[in-house]
TrEMBL record:
Protein's name according to its UniProt entry: Beta-galactosidase
Source organism superkingdom: Bacteria
The keyword Nuclease is assigned to this record: no
CDD domains: A4_beta-galactosidase_middle_domain
InterPro entries per UniProt: Beta_galactosidase_C, Beta_galactosidase_Trimer, Class_I_gatase-like, GH, Glyco_hydro_42, Glyco_hydro_42_N, Glyco_hydro_b
Taxonomic source organism: Streptomyces fungicidicus
Domain called Beta-galactosidase trimerisation: residue spans: 407-610
């Protein structure tokens, strides 16, 4: 789908063959007309074949309620088309114009403490405002009517990063919509009372109208109310996405629709696995947060995006050529980072590599955010690197459309558990769901073992090993699925605070880990969270932090793989494994961190016989990723280090990189090689 988008626009050279997309957000309204032609010329020079236009153009397109100005956009679309650059046209609804917020201040979002988020930045709209919806859809209709049939138009870009700044709105509109959502979920107030456990703290409702979003309260708001508000808020934005999409499908049924997700860092408000079916292809934005695991995090996010996309190729809608503007310190990328970051996304299934943005702004909050054309202009190292990347992506055209080859290990990433495990009034407030999952991922990278991030919607049986870190919310049917998974030969590994609650955030009674207790063959009477700075030693020489459990083994088959050597649980099991049917179920009761997991994992993977596919010299320093399609099997070797790494010959044609006479690949610091091997 993505690799053939460009055939609609004819591609930069009129060639309709599948290729990777290369481009950026393009904001021509920030520049005089004279710059536009230079832009198109430079785009061609850089190999750019698609740009996203109009993302923040509402105020320009509709200067007043009944005044429209499309002339400038007509010209931009025509120019781009003449230059062979396709357009992913935004619906422009991300940032309502001042005339609208002045006439209708009731569209502005309200925080949990009752403060209004005023105009002056962007995304100041309530996802549930009927007034905003009416104006937004009018704009979408006007754009789709105008540009239906324009030869440059290859895709629609709904809004922008839905929920980036406005996912949680506590306004009266939100309260009304929340009640409707709850009515649809529970049908009766009694059912809601039971799901929310309102017998506690005298919270029993007798009428829907009494129910509010979890606004600032005297103490911890009801946990199920909080969890449902998270579910509702994600659904409210999804509903907006659908509403825009419906207008687009009505007017331009042949143009695919996407919207840019934010699978990165701590962005957790939108349940993307649940949104993915609403669009024609998944798009993601990703920005590096500098730190010790920063590129592992990039790989993790790209991998998870692929999982959300069901393994199908996806579209990298935004990343940065160098520094951003919104971190406390905005560091520039080092030589090699631009290409490595881009190709890591491609390795994990991106068929498009796009940036925010094409030309670095001279004014506004993002003027210090890097772009493809920097303030210094095209005669710059950065622009030369950008053009070099364009050429590299062209040479990777044969892999366009290929899918990621499934790995033997899956890591289950579950939004419900993410939301619920980090709520307040828990045994610890220090639990970080994503960090725990990322640590398992980093440990696998350190061992040179490929893994796939998967969601509960995936067919879990594809993986011989399934790691489910902090799988906190386990409804009865998920418990059954996991039991079946193990009994049919899968090897499940889970951790502390898993299996504890059902979908209503009610504890499974009878001892932890609740829904997974029998499968794991253990019983926990009390959690043993650790204070910050405290740690415990295990008898396999690893160290645990954050959490311990008082475990009793309840099944004669359950093996103890490691015991606590120090601390309150000293002498008790810390890591266990129970054979179950053809497979097994293992439990890790503490936070071992990357180092501890790297040392433990080979023992956990042993029953499945999973080992690194890399030669010993490359393990740890090289990340292997595989895509497979009609054009072959594409092996990406990504140097994770700042040193040069030699990889003995692995066979295949070298699409990116260079081999010596003996076939050894030399990967410079942060370099990437891509080999095309015949499909077995
Ligand atoms: C994204 C956004 C872009 C730009 C970028 C800067 O969140 O979609 O418009 O602001 O961040 O990194």
């Amino acid at each position: 789908m993505i690799s053939t988008l460009l055939s609609r626009a004819g591609g930069a050279d009129g060639d309709p063959a599948p290729r990777l997309v290369y481009g950026a957000d393009y904001n021509p309204e920030q520049w005089p007309r004279a710059v536009w032609e230079e832009d198109v010329r430079l785009m061609r020079e850089a190999g750019v074949n698609l740009v996203s236009v109009g993302i923040f153009s509402w105020a320009r397109l509709q200067p007043a309620e009944d005044t429209w100005d499309f002339a400038w956009l007509d010209e931009v679309m025509d120019l781009l088309h003449e230059g062979g650059v396709g357009v992913d046209l935004a619906t422009a609804t991300a940032s309502p114009p001042p005339w609208l917020t002045t006439a209708h201040p009731e569209i502005l979002p309200v925080t949990a403490t009752g403060e209004t988020l005023w105009p002056g930045a962007r995304q100041h709209w309530r996802p549930t405002s009927p007034v905003f919806r009416r104006y937004a859809l009018r704009l979408v209709r006007a754009l789709a009517t105008r540009y239906a049939g324009h030869p440059a138009l290859v895709a629609w870009h709904v809004n922008n990063e839905l929920g980036c700044h406005n996912v949680y709105d506590y306004s009266d509109d939100a309260a009304r919509a929340f009640r409707d959502w709850l009515r649809a979920r529970y049908s009766t107030v009694d059912a809601l009372n039971s799901a929310w456990g309102t017998a506690f703290w005298s919270q029993r409702y007798t009428d829907w109208e009494q129910i509010l979003p979890p606004r600032l309260a005297a103490s911890h708001p009801n946990p199920t109310q909080q969890l449902d508000f998270k579910r509702f808020s994600s659904d409210a934005l999804k509903d907006h996405l659908r509403a825009e999409r419906e207008v687009l499908r009505e007017l331009t049924p042949d143009i695919p629709v996407t919207t840019n997700f934010m699978v990165m860092g701590g962005t957790r408000g939108m349940n993307y696995p649940d949104w993915a079916d609403e669009i024609d292809f998944v798009s993601n934005d990703h920005y590096v947060h500098p730190g010790p695991q920063d590129r592992d995090e990039l790989s993790f996010s790209a991998n998870l995006t692929s999982g959300i996309s069901g393994g199908r190729p996806w579209f990298l809608m935004e990343h940065s050529t160098s520094a951003v503007n919104w971190q406390p310190v905005n560091v520039a990328k080092r030589p090699g980072d631009l290409v490595r970051d881009s190709l890591l996304h491609v390795a994990h299934g991106a068929d498009a590599v796009c940036f925010f943005q094409w030309r670095q702004s001279a004014a506004g909050a993002e003027k210090y955010h890097s772009a493809m054309v920097p303030h210094a202009g095209a005669d710059s190292e950065l622009f030369r690197a950008v053009a070099g990347l364009g050429a590299t992506l062209e040479s990777l055209a044969p892999l366009a459309g290929s899918e990621r080859e499934p790995a033997r290990v899956g890591i289950l990433y579950d939004w419900e558990s993410w939301w619920a495990s980090e709520q307040d009034s828990h045994p610890t407030s220090l639990l970080d769901y994503r960090q725990e999952a990322l640590d398992w991922y980093s440990a696998l990278l350190a061992l040179g073992i490929r893994a796939d991030l998967v969601t509960t919607r995936a067919d879990l049986h594809r993986h011989q090993v399934l790691i489910a870190p902090v799988l906190h919310v386990v409804p009865a049917d998920l418990a059954k699925t996991l039991t079946r998974y193990a009994e049919q030969g899968g090897h499940l590994i889970t951790t502390y605070f898993s299996g504890v609650v059902d979908e209503h955030d009610h504890v499974w009674l009878g001892g932890y880990p609740g829904a997974l207790r029998d499968l794991l063959g253990i019983h926990i009477e009390e959690f043993g969270p650790l204070l910050p700075g405290d740690s415990v030693e295990l008898d396999d020489a690893t160290t645990g932090t954050l959490w311990t459990d008082r475990i009793t083994v309840t099944d004669s088959g359950t093996e103890v793989l490691a015991r606590y050597r120090t601390g309150e649980q000293s002498g008790r099991p810390a890591v266990t494994r129970r054979p179950a049917g053809g497979g097994s179920a293992a439990y890790v009761s503490t936070r071992l961190g990357v180092e501890g997991l790297t040392s433990l994992l080979p023992r956990l993977l042993e029953p499945a016989g999973v080992e690194s596919e890399l030669p010993a010299e490359a393990r740890g320093s090289v990340e292997p990723v595989v895509r497979r399609g009609a054009g072959g099997r594409f092996l990406f070797l990504v140097n994770r280090t700042d040193d040069t790494v030699q990889v003995p010959g692995l066979g295949g044609d070298v699409l990116v990189g260079a081999t010596g006479a003996d076939g050894t690949l030399t990967l410079g610091p942060r370099a990437v090689a891509v080999l095309r091997q015949p499909v077995a």
